[in-house]
Amino acid sequence: MSVLIDSLLAILIVYLALQCLLAPRLTQTVFLFFAFGLALALAWVRLGAVDVAITEAAIASGFLGVLFLDALRDFSFITSGKQESSDAANHSVSKKKPAFLSLPGVVLVLGLGLFLLITLEAVWKVPESGGLTAATEALLPESGVENPVTAVLLNFRAYDTWLEMGVILLGLLAVMAVGGIKIFPVHRKTPEDPVLQQVILFFTPILFLFGAFLLYFGKNGPGGAFQAAVLWGAIGILLHLGGRPVLTVIPRWLSQLLLIMGIGFFLMLGFLLLAGGASLFEYPPSYAGVLILIIETLAAISIAVTLVSVFVHLNQLNKEESN
Amino acid sequence: MDVFFTIVIVFLLLNIAVGLIRVWRGPTVADRLLTTQLFGTTGMAILLVLAGYLEDPDFLNVAITFNVLAILLVIGLVKVWKKKKGESP
């Protein structure tokens, strides 16, 4: 019977993806993308990849959501300085003729067909041994954690995770390079909007607690540094939107330290291990669990601060442009 | 019992499909945003039903993640609106 659910989900995902690309208005595209993210998270759950589902839920519906809304506002400022209608009626993408009639359309269809064939071929013959699952399971006791996903991400393939953190930091650097490093003005006025303040008061501890939960239980079950980081980052974004910009309170050297803390500790640990005769990121099995927890905590803080900085810088940038 | 859970999940999925009409037509951004809130709630319901069906409490973590982050979108939109109306750009 679950075939019915899965096929419905698959149809929904493909339909949403197509609509996302073909929708004539930007607002439609953005909100269809949210629905797409939700359907994708459900699909990951159905596939048994709960870790990925949490990440998808956190990033697609949380972080990307506010970024997209912010971008949407800017587009409406750029394309229509005069009209104040709340709908984005006047930035519809111009369409000349149906895409599937033109040459790029034909190429696209051919490419999609080829891709589908390759996918079908890849799905058709599943490796007998189940890929690397057996190897991971065998080495799990030495990794210091019980969740195979965390073991792979932070022990066996720690290199990848380390570089991923670098990629996120690079994203922030790109935003800073385009917009310039902001010295944030300190608002001394009392924040208005009592409802918003109450919401923030209510949600901040919940977000923090659930983030910490995901971080700590990432070694036994689904969860981990990235998911926790989005939840912690959401606190910063909420506070910023509520008129309490976090980055103005902490001094600049401290925020810089927080930004590079995760990747820096990871790197130093790797070099210390190299100096001790082991290879890069080869933790001694008896300390592996503790080391992974420290790395994950520092990484989560760093990523959270990075995400908040990205949002704050973009938001600040937009404010100045619109004035 | 199997059939019951399947029917519930399929019904909830169809709810999402129907909600897409509002995303497509919705005259204002707020209409569309409320639909995504509906999607979030429906998705959570699906996850909860699945968690009960497959008896896997890990799914609840996904549901809570959806739940606590849904507020971010609403607050983001409220701020966008405010700025669009020119109150405090």
What series of H and E elements makes up the topology of chain B?
HHH
Q: How far apart, in Å, are the first and last alpha carbons of chain B?
A: 55 Å
Number of domains of chain B: 1
Count of distinct strands of chain A? 0
| Helix content percent band of chain B | over 70%
Largest interface, and how many residues on either side?
A-B, 61 and 53 residues
Query: How many distinct helices of chain A?
Result: 12
Helix- and strand-based class of chain A? mainly alpha
State the low-pLDDT regions of chain B, or none: none
Put simply, the count of helices of chain B is 3
Transmembrane segments (chain B): 6-24, 36-54, 60-81
Organism (chain B): Marinilabilia rubra
Protein name (chain B): pH regulation protein F
InterPro entries (chain B): MrpF/PhaF-like (IPR007208)
Mind sketching the topology for me?
The complex is a heterodimer of chains A (323) and B (89).
Chain A: H1 2-22, H2 26-47, H3 50-79, H4 103-124, H5 133-143, H6 148-156, H7 158-179, H8 194-216, H9 225-241, H10 246-249, H11 252-275, H12 288-322
Chain B: H1 2-25, H2 29-54, H3 58-84
Protein name (chain A): Sodium:proton antiporter
Subcellular location (chain A): Cell membrane
Keywords (chain A): Cell membrane, Membrane, Transmembrane, Transmembrane helix
